[in-house]
């Protein structure tokens, strides 16, 4: 059987089922076998692995993953794709397709019931408008995921990978790098999709830390400090934190910054994750009841 990634086969399936691409769901089907291989290699998939795929489309990537992995659970929100997936994946007994919105799924329960309790790998060609919510859902809900390998808009990948004092560095950079090491796998031109998206894409790999990399006294406070620091990028770190509800006066924040060894005139975008961690830990001590 010719691979589903063949443009000819993809077009035939779309025509056979009279499938209409949904702009609201951000549907673009990948039609390049080399990129699919790069995604699988990037996810370091081997036999015995349990994989969650979000947005399988017509099953192009799903089928190739199932050649290696022990089991794949593919979560597809579009009910119009379910008959197509039954057709393209029906001969595989290690694939289960679920017609759900991944953002509403209890992923830990899914892993426990269908994927042997994990660990799992998340692989996806995500609709760009829900890229960040899906990735953060897996990270913040402590899903036992070792690798997240996803196709994202190039600008989003740049932000996830960014270092301090660069234009792309922001709250997303800190959030992702708090949980993961970030690798860029490959860039993907828009010509390798049907229909072509309006943006260039990047396959990015997030390798979750096996144990916490940063010593935090209060994780929610850490992220509150990060959010405050990037809320108004032109403000100094002193003014940014002072205008946020941290239960400290401006003078108290001055003292905190001095204790942390951070110049009050610096901007949030210059702080490393270690500095944010140190700063939030000092604030925690100050605001303890």
TrEMBL record:
SMART domains membership: rADc
SUPFAM superfamilies in the record: S-adenosyl-L-methionine-dependent methyltransferases (SSF53335)
Catalytic activity, as annotated: adenosine(1518)/adenosine(1519) in 16S rRNA + 4 S-adenosyl-L-methionine = N(6)-dimethyladenosine(1518)/N(6)-dimethyladenosine(1519) in 16S rRNA + 4 S-adenosyl-L-homocysteine + 4 H(+)
Domain Ribosomal RNA adenine methylase transferase N-terminal: 35-210
Binding site for S-adenosyl-L-methionine: 28, 30, 55, 76, 101, 125
EC number, UniProt record: 2.1.1.182
Keywords: Cytoplasm, Methyltransferase, RNA-binding, rRNA processing, S-adenosyl-L-methionine, Transferase
GO MF, one annotated term: 16S rRNA (adenine(1518)-N(6)/adenine(1519)-N(6))-dimethyltransferase activity
Claim: Secreted is one of the keywords in the record: no
Domain of life the protein comes from: Bacteria
Locations listed in the record: Cytoplasm
GO annotation, cellular component aspect: cytosol
NCBIfam families documented for this protein: ksgA (TIGR00755)
Stored HAMAP family: 16SrRNA_methyltr_A
Family classification: Belongs to the class I-like SAM-binding methyltransferase superfamily. rRNA adenine N(6)-methyltransferase family. RsmA subfamily.
Task performed by this protein: Specifically dimethylates two adjacent adenosines (A1518 and A1519) in the loop of a conserved hairpin near the 3'-end of 16S rRNA in the 30S particle. May play a critical role in biogenesis of 30S subunits.
This protein's name: Ribosomal RNA small subunit methyltransferase A
Protein's organism: Tepidibacter thalassicus DSM 15285
Organism placement in taxonomy: Bacteria, Bacillati, Bacillota, Clostridia, Peptostreptococcales
């Amino acid at each position: 059987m010719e691979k589903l990634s063949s443009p000819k086969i993809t077009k035939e399936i779309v025509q056979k089922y009279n499938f209409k691409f949904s702009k609201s769901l951000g549907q673009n089907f990948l039609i390049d076998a080399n990129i699919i291989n790069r995604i699988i290699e990037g996810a370091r998939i081997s036999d015995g692995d349990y994989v969650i795929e979000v947005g399988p489309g017509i099953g192009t990537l799903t089928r190739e993953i199932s050649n290696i992995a022990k089991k794949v659970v593919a979560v597809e929100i579009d009910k119009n794709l379910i008959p197509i997936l039954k057709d393209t994946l029906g001969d595989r007994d290690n694939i289960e397709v679920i017609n759900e919105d991944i953002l509403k799924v209890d992923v830990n329960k899914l892993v426990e019931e269908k994927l042997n309790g994990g660990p799992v790998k998340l692989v996806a060609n995500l609709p760009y408008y829900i890229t960040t919510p899906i990735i953060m859902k897996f990270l913040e809900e402590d899903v036992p995921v070792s690798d997240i390998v996803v196709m994202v808009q190039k600008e989003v990948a740049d932000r996830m990978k960014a270092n301090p004092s660069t234009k792309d560095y922001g709250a997303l950079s800190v959030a992702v790098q708090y949980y993961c090491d970030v690798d860029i796998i490959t860039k993907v031109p828009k010509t390798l999709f049907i229909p072509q998206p309006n943006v260039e894409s990047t396959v990015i790999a997030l390798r979750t830390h096996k144990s916490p990399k940063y010593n935090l006294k209060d994780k929610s406070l850490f992220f509150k400090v990060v959010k405050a620091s990037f809320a108004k990028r032109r403000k100094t770190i002193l003014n940014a934190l002072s205008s946020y509800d941290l239960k400290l006066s401006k003078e108290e924040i001055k003292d905190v910054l001095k204790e942390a060894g951070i110049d009050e005139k610096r901007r949030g975008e210059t702080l490393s994750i270690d500095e944010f961690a140190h700063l939030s830990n000092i604030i925690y001590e100050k605001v303890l009841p």
